[in-house]
């Protein structure tokens, strides 16, 4: 029998696309975490802002929980609907609405993919610089909800820096136009920035004005093999001082093993414990010479054991696949993931503690870590042993995550760098935020969503 609440919703919004088939509920009710079984009430696919407002108003009146949904590429359970929520998918709202050449603002709907934004920016001779491997499936709304970072934060910063304005539907259905693309605006609180990173708990992002910039200078890509962990920060300091870095990404030999098995091509014959993909400005011969000198300095200091410089765009793409293909290569093993952040200055001391902690607590498990060393963001993936039950594996990893969170707290770090808190990190929020901060966050949430319908259970209960 059709749920009477859904009958009422379709009566109020006659043009709404509503999915109730089991396959659709499973597809739209989960993200990449795969830890919770999806159990949504239904899936709503609005085609306009007006339909989103009507859905939110109905949900507020009927006390039906909503889970805003983009590309569902998240890794913290932020888009999971496991408690009978209505999934509010923005995938049909995927248009590029316009471009203002004077202000360099690209107006888009929330369901547009990051790759489509890149293509639209290029069509105007400009760049939207936020970038990461899931560009083809993640959406701008989801990027905004988690303040996504990616591989070029070292040069361009996170999503937050590139949002000129937002259109948001609050928890009562009210439409908010936030900042409207202004460069300067000191008229009270910047609610636009409050929405960024709020994981759909304060409002449903339905549109954005994205800032574009000049295309990046010609770049060169280098793959480095490093002999020990200390060399990661030493080489980063060396390259940052001598080159104009666009990206500085690292991965371990464990990560390399998995991505090679998944089809990537080996670029360095030697087997070393750590690898770096560095991308830097290569405008002229002077930049190329600076890169060679930096490499030679690293070799002389014993920090670099081997390396290769891409000789073509296709070879550069091959080198980048070694880094960008890691997450996909690990997915079949259903890893437990940690996504952490520290100040770069705190990284060396933390790395030593982290290595000792992981070796002690995971003696039987394969630990694969990689990340954005240039902005202090590490991704730690724990792979379950074949003979361990999933519940036992999760319980063990969560106990270790508590220890990791305590270590991060001592070093002033964060339990979530760019994946958000969602369901996965909810119990560890207190290691990053004080009790006073969390109380204020709860108060803010109550103001924007007085009925408590927007992504309940995410961030905190």
TrEMBL record:
The protein's required cofactors: FAD
Q: Does the keyword Oxidoreductase apply?
A: yes
Q: Which Pfam families match?
A: FAD-oxidase_C (PF02913), FAD_binding_4 (PF01565)
Keywords of this entry: FAD, Flavoprotein, Oxidoreductase
**InterPro entries in the record, alphabetically?**
FAD-bd_oxidored_4_C, FAD-bd_PCMH, FAD-bd_PCMH-like_sf, FAD-bd_PCMH_sub2, FAD-linked_Oxase-like_C, FAD-oxidored/transferase_4, Oxid_FAD_bind_N, Vanillyl_alc_oxidase_C-sub2
Q: Domain FAD-binding PCMH-type spans what residues? A: 36-215
Q: Does Cell membrane show up as a keyword for this record? A: no
Read off the Gene3D superfamilies from this record.
3.30.465.10, 3.30.70.2190, 3.30.70.2740, Vanillyl-alcohol Oxidase, Chain A, domain 4
Family of the protein in this entry:
Belongs to the FAD-binding oxidoreductase/transferase type 4 family.
- The name on file for this protein is FAD-binding oxidoreductase
Organism, scientific name: Frateuria flava
């Amino acid at each position: 029998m059709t749920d009477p609440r859904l009958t009422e919703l379709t009566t109020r919004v006659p043009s709404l696309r509503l999915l109730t088939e089991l396959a659709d509920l499973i597809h739209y009710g989960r993200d990449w975490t795969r830890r919770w079984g999806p159990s949504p009430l239904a899936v709503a696919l609005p085609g306009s802002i007006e339909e989103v407002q009507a859905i939110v108003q109905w949900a507020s009146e009927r006390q039906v929980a909503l889970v805003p949904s983009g590309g569902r590429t998240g890794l913290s359970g932020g888009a999971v609907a496991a408690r009978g929520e209505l999934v509010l998918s923005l995938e049909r709202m995927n248009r590029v609405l316009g471009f203002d050449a004077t202000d360099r603002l690209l107006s888009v709907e929330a369901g547009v993919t990051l790759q489509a934004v890149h293509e639209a920016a290029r069509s105007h001779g400009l760049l939207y610089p936020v970038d990461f491997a899931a560009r083809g499936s993640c959406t701008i709304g989801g990027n905004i909800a988690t303040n996504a970072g990616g591989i070029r934060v070292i040069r361009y910063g996170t999503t937050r820096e590139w949002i000129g304005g937002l259109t948001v539907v609050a928890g009562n259905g009210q439409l908010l136009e936030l900042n409207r693309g202004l460069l300067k605006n000191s008229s009270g609180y910047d609610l636009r920035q409050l929405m960024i990173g709020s994981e759909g708990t304060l409002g449903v992002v339905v549109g954005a004005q994205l800032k574009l910039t000049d295309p990046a200078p010609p770049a060169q890509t280098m793959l480095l093999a490093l002999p020990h962990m200390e060399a990661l920060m030493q080489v980063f300091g060396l390259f940052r001082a001598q080159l104009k870095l666009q990206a500085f990404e690292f991965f371990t030999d464990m990560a390399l093993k998995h991505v090679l098995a998944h089809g990537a091509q080996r670029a360095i014959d030697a087997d070393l414990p750590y690898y770096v993909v560095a991308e830097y400005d290569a405008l002229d011969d002077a930049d190329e010479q600076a890169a060679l000198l930096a490499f030679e300095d690293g070799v002389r200091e014993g920090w670099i054991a081997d390396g290769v410089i891409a000789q073509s765009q296709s070879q550069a793409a091959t080198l980048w696949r070694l880094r960008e293909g890691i997450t996909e290569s690990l997915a079949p093993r259903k890893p437990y993931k940690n996504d952490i952040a520290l100040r770069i200055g705190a990284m060396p001391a933390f790395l030593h503690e982290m290595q000792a902690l992981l070796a002690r607590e995971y003696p039987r498990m394969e630990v694969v870590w990689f990340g954005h060393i240039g902005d202090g963001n590490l991704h730690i993936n724990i792979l379950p042993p074949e003979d361990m039950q999933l519940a036992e594996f999760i319980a063990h990893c969560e106990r270790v995550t508590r220890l990791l969170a305590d270590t991060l707290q001592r070093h002033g770090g964060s339990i979530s760098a760019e994946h958000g808190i969602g369901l996965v990190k909810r119990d560890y929020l207190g290691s990053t935020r004080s009790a006073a901060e969390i109380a204020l966050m709860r108060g803010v949430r109550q103001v924007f969503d007085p009925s408590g319908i927007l992504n309940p259970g995410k961030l905190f209960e």
